[in-house]
Amino acid sequence: MSNLDNLGNVLIRSDLNVPIKNGQITDNFRILKSVGIVDTIFDKSKTITFISHMGRPDGKDLNLSLRPVAKSMENILDKKVHFIDEVFGEEVEEQIEKSEFKIFLLENLRFEKGEIENDNNFSKQVTKPFNSYIFDAFGAAHREHASVVSFGENLDSFQGPLMDKEIHELDKLLNNNETGYAVLLGGAKISDKLNLIEKLLPKVEYLMIGGGMCFTLLKALGHEIGRSLLEESFISKAEELLNSEFGNKIILPIDFGVSDSINSSVRENVKLEDFKNNHIGVDIGPQTISNFRKILDKSKNIFWNGPMGIFEKEEFSYGTREITNIISSSSAYTCIGGGDSVSAINKYADTKYFNHISTGGGASLEYLEGKKLPGVNKYKSLII
Ligand code: AMP
């Protein structure tokens, strides 16, 4: 039985935090996912208003305005989306009251400090014109922000379908007891992912690590890493992990794409033992890809987060592209943990070849660490 009747003026907290360069949206994955709810609730609501954060503005920074997102939503929905350049106040109240338009998008939530400070008064002002609230922003669910934990207190509130899907899919990995579970991590910093590695190691069969984060581990093993990314203060923690009960599950690269500058376009492949002190590791090498492929090919569940190199640069993107291809053609259950890996997939493959692509980067990692996130299962799910 549906609990969707009479939503009235509904406020939806989505994650519309998309990358924008020179006013152009460079990856609309999150928008595409978020607007799906419009069809579901269209006939059951008087007005539908989206609200989201974008980036980390310090006050009202118009470079981080959501205005371009309204255009993109319109194109996807083929429906008018009326943008209001306020988060709350008379203008918002009047527009919702008039209901001249059906779908609205409000300005960047983080233009107001009440959002991050989880200010009660701010929550009351924002939610004033609305009757119901749908929290559907998994990418923000790990934050104690007003829109995550307080907006819903003032209205009839629900957990949205994207949230339900994220939880359902990530739970498959969290509760996985099958063999053949492989995790592949990359990206810049090991410090961001140490907790996750520690949590995952007992559960997985293999934990492959590429990207910039592998160099702190290689340094801990005594290897020459040249001028590659290193987090000096985490070497001892890395050593601890490698020597732990499950440390032998960690699979590290054995060759690399190296360069003498990250601004250079010249790339050379070298074996780990041939690393020179002027080399910077910018990508994984072909032998490593082949090793990772052997593991991925025999795995039943795969979780991937983080690029294998500085993939923003064509010459250093080879490893990330190859890994995207391998995982996209895998018959395993494949889950991609948000952030830059999603950009890579959008660039090199088709999203339809993956079982689940998380819209949340940090949130999906924290969820898989086993943390209880403030925005997860806070409200009843919409029953459609
Ligand atoms: P993260 O946000 O931690 O997932 O990191 C993503 C970033 O890691 C991307 O911008 C990549 O350019 C960067 N990255 C990947 N591999 C390397 C590397 N070998 N050295 C420096 N940065 C890297």
Please summarize the sheet with the most strands: 7 strands, parallel
Number of strands: 18
Radius of gyration computed on alpha carbons: 22 Å
Q: Give unreliable regions as ranges.
A: none
CATH class value of the largest domain:
Alpha Beta
User: Which architecture of the largest domain per CATH?
Assistant: 3-Layer(aba) Sandwich
CATH superfamily of the largest domain: Phosphoglycerate kinase, N-terminal domain
Unique bound compounds: adenosine monophosphate
Taken together, the total number of domains comes to 2
Describe the structure.
There is one protein chain. This protein is of the alpha/beta class and 384 residues long. The protein has 15 helices and 18 strands. The protein has two domains: 9-159, Phosphoglycerate kinase, N-terminal domain (Rossmann fold); 167-368, Rossmann fold, CATH 3.40.50.1260. The chain has helices at 29-34, 37-41, 67-77, 90-98, 113-116, 120-127, 146-149, 161-174, 194-200, 214-220, 235-242, 286-297, 318-328, 340-348, 362-368, and strands spanning 8-13, 20-21, 24-25, 45-51, 81-84, 103-106, 132-135, 156-159, 181-185, 206-209, 250-251, 255-259, 268-271, 280-284, 301-305, 333-336, 356-357, 380-381. It has a seven-stranded parallel β-sheet, with helices on both faces. The chain has a six-stranded parallel β-sheet with strand order 11-10-9-15-16-17, sandwiched between helices. A three-stranded antiparallel β-sheet has the order 13-12-14. Helix 13 (318-328) crosses helix 14. It is elongated. Bound molecules: adenosine monophosphate. The site of adenosine monophosphate has 17 residues, from strand 14. Adenosine monophosphate binds next to strand 14.
